[in-house]
Prior knowledge:
Elements (H helix, E strand, L loop, with lengths): L13 H22 L2 H8 L3 H7 L3 H11 L12 H17 L3 H10 L4 H27 L9 H17 L7 H12 L19
Helix pairs in contact: 1-2, 1-4, 1-6, 4-6, 4-7, 5-7, 5-8, 5-9
Amino acid sequence: MASTARPAGRPRSEEVRDRVIGAAEELLDESGYLGMTMDEIAVRAKVSKKTLYRWWPHKAAVIADVLVARADVRAVPDVGDTRAELLIVCDYIDDFSRARDVFSRLCLTEAAAEESAVLQSFLDVVLHRRDHARAAFQRGIARGDLPPDIDTDALLDLWNGFFVYRRSFRPAPIREETVHQFVDLALAGHVPRLPGSAPRKDTPEG
């Protein structure tokens, strides 16, 4: 893929940017990531292909900006109850996995696998969402409800993987009881642990 470094010289017009992002968003909803082209974006945005390619070297770069523009990032409220807060984390993951952009995110990740600059702004949104979830886990640790050596990232990966897999690859119901069991397992200490943590007393060494 071409380099994603912003060209030197005249700054990009925000009015042009808004038109391009709006046009790309419409096409994404109408045709999906695989069905849309840069030529179609240029025509709908009423910009020249030269202008479009000057600021977005390929479709993945445009769609990364679209996904960032309509990302839904919410803090997990501190309600004083770790179980309730972890269920809210699961609700947010559920909403994320239901979103119309799931397939587009997967396509984008594949298209830009070797071009981190394209994905960085979108990954920043993902990391921001994760920071909010991590804060809920930290509150649970402070209350004594979760082990201090919990590998939060690994656990969030497991939870996100379950929801995305069920929504995208093996469509199947996600039962409320199952989600509650995930949270109860975490509260019972059945969670991934950080490397180097001391062995649990109920786990044989060796």
